[in-house]
Structures are given as C-alpha cells and as structure tokens.
Amino acid sequence: MPADTITISTDDEKLDIAYVYNFLKETYWGKGRTYEGMKVMIKNSSVNFGMYDGDKQIGFARVLTDTLRFAYILDVFIDQEYQSRGLGLRLMKYVLEHESMKNVDKVALGTRDAHGVYEKLGFTALESPEIWMEKKKPNLVC
Fold first, then answer.
1. What is the pTM (predicted TM-score) of this model?
2. How far are the Cα atoms of 9, 29, 56, 118, 125 from residue 110, in angstroms, in the given order?
3. Mean pLDDT, to the nearest integer, of 15-38?
4. Are 25 and 31 in contact (CB under 8 A)?
5. Cα distance between residue 51 and residue 57, in whole Å
6. By mean pLDDT, which of 41-55, 66-80, 109-123 is the weakest?
7. pLDDT at 1
8. Which residue, 12, 32, 37, 39, could crosslink 142 as a Cys pair with Cβ 3.0–4.6 Å?
9. Coil, strand, or helix at residue 113?
10. Cα–Cα distance between 93 and 107 in angstroms, integer?
11. pLDDT score at 129
12. Which phi and psi (to 5°) does residue 11 adopt?
C-alpha cells in the first residue's frame, strides 16, 4: 500500500454514508443505529473526516465542537482490511490538527479498546469521572 494513495477529506460529499453506517452498525458503540439516523448525525456534526485509499473509503471520524472550549470525537474507525498500519493514528492526528480544533482546550472521546492509540496522542483517563454525568432516553433508536 503506497502511502500516497491514502488521503483524508472533510468534504461530506465524498463520504460513503452507506459504508460508514454498515461498518458502525456492527460495532459495540453503533449497534441499534439506523441508516437515516446516521445521515442526520453526519449532517449535524461540526466536521466529518473520511479516510480514503484512492476513491475507496477506509476510515471515518466525526467531531462535535464549539471550536473554542470543547470538542467530542466520535465514531472513529479504520476498515479491518487496513488496520495495524498506523492509519488510525494518522487519522486522529489529522483530526486533532484540523482548523476546527486549533483553539479547543478540552477534547473528549470514549473507547473500550483503543486506549493505546489515543494515549500516543496525549489522551489520558479522566481525572474526575464523577464530575461527568449522562442522561439516556430508553429505547431511543437513531
């Protein structure tokens, strides 16, 4: 895989939403999503990042941010065929260096299984998890 064939774009028109949906619906964090819901999430995200090998989409990440105080990174993945090549790290570096993230002083994300990747980028476990709260709506399908 020549490195120059891999690109990253924030152009939503290039996104293969069906591919993103089909990948995410099989993940532990994306189960229960609908295709229509995925389209809404992408549309309403601050910035979406597609990673491509030529014209083929092979990765994705999206960010919700106010571009100053806080950003939340979601739905990060690299196609299984392309994993273990450093592309997840490359995608995340691109996300963190994007114009929309330049002034953000707190970036959050959640993971069950990729701590090693995120730690390489300076992420740490929350110092005070008890200050974080959540509210879930039961049986919400999106």
1. 0.89
2. 23, 9, 27, 10, 10
3. 94
4. yes
5. 6
6. 109-123
7. 45
8. 37
9. coil
10. 13
11. 79
12. -80, 110
CA distance 53 to 63: 22
The pLDDT mean for the chain works out to 91
**Domain 3-122 class, CATH top level:** alpha beta
Q: Where do the structural domains in the chain lie, given as residue ranges?
A: 3-122
Spell 92-124 as b/e; 16+ CB within 10 A means b: bebbbebeebeebeebebeeeeeeebbeeeebe
Q: pLDDT at residue 23 above 90?
A: yes
For 84, residues 6+ apart whose C-beta sits below 8 A from its C-beta are: none
Length reported for the chain: 142
DSSP character for 111? -
Q: In what order do the strands lie in the sheet with 70-78?
A: 6-9, 47-53, 56-65, 70-78, 106-108
Predicted pLDDT at 75: 97
28 phi and psi angles, rounded to 5 deg? -65, -30
Q: Given this model, what pLDDT does residue 37 score? A: 93
pLDDT tens readout for residues 52-64:
999 999 999 999 9
Q: Is 122 left (phi over 0), alpha (psi -120 to 50) or beta?
A: left
